[in-house]
Design a protein that fits this description.
This protein has 15 helices and no strands. It is mostly helical. The chain has two domains: 201 residues; 205 residues, no CATH class.
Length: 408
């Protein structure tokens, strides 16, 4: 491989990393600011709304976030804007259903903060209507940053300033809502307007929902995977409410670690198919080889620095035990491996069914274990239940990919 393609690949990876890096910094800054200005209790409510939005966001995204990058990468450039518009119409109908449903659930979970959770439900579901998966499939990290990420980062930073002035977290979330609307608008215009092909919106409800059938493997994967990752929050809220803040901090550190991995995943998702059919096997092997390396690196970092990070971010109010840190590190290792093997490797060779099967396996084994751990142990036991289920998912995908190599 000549130096020019290598440098181009590194530049693309760095561009994806810029988006993730800034997002991580903004997110980390927001935690101590919110806990300091609004209090740990209101931060917990907001953090819970963000976590629950991921569950309902699965319904809105309906698999496009999972299989979308590979679909875009394999579609002719002239047809891609129509692909996005069709998906946007389908997802808009789903959003109309999901937003009120999430608001109702959040009101039940946090009945003392109705206005906050209603606004948060709309604000945190809107990004699932966006086109980040589209830009990843196009291998256009600059568009991902400018049109999708930057407005959302700005909403959080300006929202923190509004919070400092008002001391009311509702205004922070309302500011994020406005900027998320802006991000969605800019994204849609940037994809649809430059197209030279004739793009026709089809608002037929029947056809909008018929398109969802093609996304069944993607949505099953996303839904079941999200279930056993987010179920602990519900279980702890019900059975271990005094320890909810501890697990929310662990969950937040885990999610930031996964976010830090996403530039690698985004790069690989576009890199495998763009080399042509003759290079797919070679790139699959290389991707499968690097997956454990990234998992081990991130998992070790969480284990070593998790307690210290928790203390800093919470202003010393959240104690993060070492056993919990080890569980979260193991969770990250397994998820890093399964995301690269599943979302990048298996999807790129048309094995979305295997990807869905692996996450169903994780949910079937993990969900009962999480409930039992919440009933009879503590947050550390719950975290280990999640970690073990993620290990099963990664092992199943690795076995399936090895079988694919053997048969091809």
């Amino acid at each position: 491989m000549s130096a020019k393609p290598i440098m181009a690949s590194l530049a693309r990876l760095a561009s994806f990393a810029l988006t993730v890096g800034l997002g991580t910094i903004v997110g980390l800054i927001s935690i101590p600011v919110i806990t300091g200005l609004a209090g740990a209790q209101l931060w917990t409510v907001q953090a819970m709304a963000q976590s629950v939005s991921i569950l309902f966001g699965i319904l809105v995204a309906f698999g496009w976030g999972t299989t979308g990058p590979a679909m875009v990468a394999s579609t002719d450039a002239a047809l891609r804007p129509q692909l996005f518009l069709d998906s946007l119409v389908s997802r808009a109908y789903l959003f109309v259903v999901a937003a009120p449903a999430m608001a109702a659930v959040m009101i039940v979970l946090q009945p003392d903060h109705v206005l906050l959770v209603v606004i948060a439900s709309i604000a945190y579901l809107l990004p699932f209507l966006g086109g980040n998966w589209y830009f990843i499939g196009e291998a256009k990290p600059r568009k991902l940053f400018v049109f999708d990420a930057l407005p959302q980062f700005s909403g959080t930073l300006i929202g923190l300033a509004v919070l400092a002035l008002t001391r009311d977290i509702v205004w922070l979330v309302a500011t994020q809502l406005l900027f998320n609307i802006l991000a969605l608008t800019i994204t849609c215009l940037s994809i649809i307007q430059p197209s030279r092909a004739r793009i026709v919106p089809n608002f037929s409800v029947r056809q909008a929902f018929s398109r969802l059938g093609h996304q069944r493997h993607g949505v099953v994967t996303a839904a079941t995977g999200s279930l056993y990752v987010n179920l602990p929050l519900v279980a702890i809220n019900l059975f271990l409410p005094a320890q909810l803040g501890i697990y929310l901090m662990a969950d937040r550190l885990f999610r930031y670690a996964v976010l830090a991995l996403s530039p690698v995943l985004q790069f690989i998702q576009g890199w495998i198919p763009e080399g042509g059919r003759e290079n797919v096997r070679h790139r699959l092997v290389r991707s499968a080889q690097v997956a454990p390396m990234f998992g081990l690196l991130g998992g070790t970092a969480i284990f070593l620095f998790g307690p210290m990070a928790s203390e800093i971010l919470s202003n010393g109010t959240v104690i993060f035990p070492n056993l919990l840190s080890a569980a979260v590190g193991t969770m990250f290792f397994s998820v890093a491996v399964s995301q690269i093997l599943g979302l990048a490797c298996l999807v790129s060779v048309g094995q979305g069914k295997i990807l869905a099967q692996s996450t169903v396996l994780g949910a079937v084994c993990g969900a009962p274990a999480i409930i039992v751990a919440a009933l009879f142990t503590d947050v550390t036991g719950v975290a280990w239940a999640v970690a073990i289920s993620e290990i099963l998912v990664a092992a199943y995908q690795g076995r399936a990919l090895r079988r694919h190599f053997t048969m091809s």
